[in-house]
Recover the amino acids of this structure.
C-alpha cells in the first residue's frame, strides 16, 4: 500500500469521527521523516481518542502496521506513526499552541481530492 493510500484511509478514519479542520501536508520533498502529515482536531478527549481508535482499526484492517503511538492517555495530542504517514490528532487548545501547519509550511498543503488521484 502506498503512502498516499494510507493517508487517504487515515483521513477517512478521522473524518468518520467528525474531525475538525483536517489538513494534509505533503512533506516528502522537505523531510525524510515521512511523506505525509495529517493534522486533525477534536473538541474533547473522548473524540480525540475515538479518532485515534478509528485510524488504528481501519489501517489495521488494511494491513498497515503502526510503528508507534504516543499521547493516547492524555489525549491532548496523539501522534500515530505509520512510517511514511504520521497522524497528529489534537485537542483544539494544543493544536493552536503547537501550530504544526506553520512549522511544516515548507511542505505542500494538499486537498483531500488529491489523495484520490
Amino acid at each position: 500500500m502506498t503512502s498516499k493510500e494510507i493517508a487517504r484511509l487515515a483521513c477517512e478514519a478521522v473524518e468518520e469521527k467528525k474531525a475538525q479542520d483536517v489538513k494534509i501536508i505533503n512533506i516528502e520533498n522537505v523531510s525524510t521523516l515521512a511523506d505525509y502529515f495529517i493534522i486533525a482536531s477534536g473538541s474533547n478527549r473522548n473524540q480525540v481518542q475515538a479518532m485515534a481508535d478509528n485510524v488504528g482499526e481501519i489501517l489495521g484492517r488494511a494491513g498497515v502496521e503502526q510503528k508507534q503511538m504516543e499521547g493516547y492517555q492524555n489525549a491532548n495530542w496523539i501522534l500515530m506513526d505509520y512510517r511514511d504517514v504520521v497522524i497528529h490528532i489534537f485537542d483544539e487548545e494544543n493544536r493552536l499552541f503547537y501550530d504544526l501547519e506553520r512549522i511544516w509550511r515548507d511542505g505542500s498543503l494538499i486537498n483531500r481530492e488529491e489523495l484520490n488521484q
Notes: Residues 3-116 form a domain with the Beta Polymerase; domain 2 fold (CATH 3.30.460.10).
